[in-house]
Amino acid sequence: MNSKKKLIAGNWKMNGGLAANEALLKAIMAGLGDGGGAACDVAVAVPAPYLAQVQSLTFGSAVAVASQDVSQHEAGAFTGEVSVAMLKEFGVRYALVGHSERRQYHGETDVVVAEKAQRALAAGVTPIICVGETLQEREAGQTESVVKRQLAAVIHLNGHCISEVVVAYEPVWAIGTGRTASPEQAQAVHAVLRAQLAAASEHADRIRLLYGGSMNAANAAQLLSQPDIDGGLVGGASLKAPDFLQIIAAAR
Ligand code: PEP
Fold first, then answer.
1. In whole numbers, what is the pLDDT of the chain averaged over residues?
2. What is the mean pLDDT of residues 48-66?
3. Around Cβ 31, how many Cβ atoms within 10 Å?
4. Residue minimizing CA distance to atom 3 of ligand 1
5. Rounded to whole angstroms, how far apart are CA atoms 200 and 194?
6. What is the pLDDT of residues 211-245, one digit of tens each?
7. Which end of the chain is more exposed for a tag (fewer CB within 10 A), N or C?
8. What are the tens digits of pLDDT across the range 148-200?
9. The pTM is what?
10. Ligand 1 center–CA 233 separation, angstroms
């Protein structure tokens, strides 16, 4: 059941700019108020060039810094990649891993996703591991098998307990489309994931399972009231401070 603190993580994707980031973060932090003001944990996953800016702006606030990806490699000849050690230097607390846009446009396989999750965990960065089916897979009745396969790839990470990760269920057909999974559809998949986690770990109840896919100020409360939904991964709505704040407020 849902006694753990929820997590609302914004995913800015490839959006932002120095001035816009500052305005957005200042509005979010003002909305949260002095003592953090949120009954839940809050994070923003920002493009890598802005990590230094966002670290400095959010320092001492309730807003944690997250990256949108992490390399599976430790260091070396991997042009364009960003290592977890580098992310740590900028105060990164969470790293998105296996977002559907990485799987779709950058060919990330379940194996690569597991390597990235492992790399993040080993450095003390919490991976937010994304799973989710495409519309075609849903229509073919494959939702359960797809998300179970994706979760199975990360469920036994060397030397780590699965309870150290965050899992985000993001149906691909709901991401950036304005088409949200109904609370019942989302809960049904979250229950499947929870059961799979419970079979692997006695700490499954502690794992935060986020829902992502067109979550917004209007639908967040209903989604977040489902028994196995422990937070949200929010794309578009995280770029608008009032909307993001309303989602945070709904995460009690
Ligand atoms: C996402 O990028 O993870 C996401 C859920 O996007 P959106 O909220 O815009 O659908």
1. 94
2. 97
3. 16
4. 235
5. 10
6. 999 999 999 999 999 999 999 999 999 999 999 99
7. N
8. 999 999 998 777 777 789 999 999 999 989 899 999 999 999 999 999 999 99
9. 0.96
10. 7
Q: How far is the CA of 237 from the centre of ligand 1 (A)?
A: 8
User: What percentage of the chain has pLDDT greater than the value 70?
Assistant: 97
| Angstrom distances, CA of residue 242 to CA of 39, 125, 245 | 16, 28, 5
Atom of ligand 1 nearest to the CA of 178: 10
Rg (CA), the chain: 17
* Residues 215 and 174: beta-carbon distance below 8 Å: no
- Ordered structural domains, the chain, with CATH: 6-250 (3.20.20.70)
Within 6 Å (CB) of ligand 1, which residues are found?
A: 11, 13, 170, 175-176, 212-215, 233-237
| Nearest protein CA to atom 8 of ligand 1, as residue | 235
Q: What is the dihedral of CA 121, 124, 125, 129, to 10 degrees?
A: 20
Dist CA 111 CA 80 (whole Å): 20
Question: How far apart are the CA of 70 and the centre of ligand 1, in A?
Answer: 18
Helix (H, G, I), strand (E, B) or coil at 80: coil
Query: Three-state SS for 43?
Result: strand
